[in-house]
Amino acid sequence: MRVLLDEQLPRQLSVYLVGHEVRTVQQQHWAGTKNGELLRLAVAARFESFLTADHNLEYQQNLQEVSLGIVVLVAASNALEDLLPLVPDTLEALSAIQPGQLVRVLGTRATSDDA
Q: What's the predicted TM-score (pTM) here?
């Protein structure tokens, strides 16, 4: 699966997302792009999922119009050491997510909402 890693997440996280083609917002030269435009660019570039720690994304954007799976990581911070325990559930979420679906990864479990 092609995954876009949001810019507030550490790029080193991509190494742990085994089995997926992961690119960062910075690698795409999209740093500083607002979420609405960022999601449109991701769809146009044929990304299938967007991995973020932006807990408000679903309230800021109409995700029903986005043909991406959105995975929101919920951790104590965006530091790699706080995100690494979420990797197994993140991999599970990425393997099952559907376009237009939002999944929150809370570490020990993932919750799903239709976007």
A: 0.87
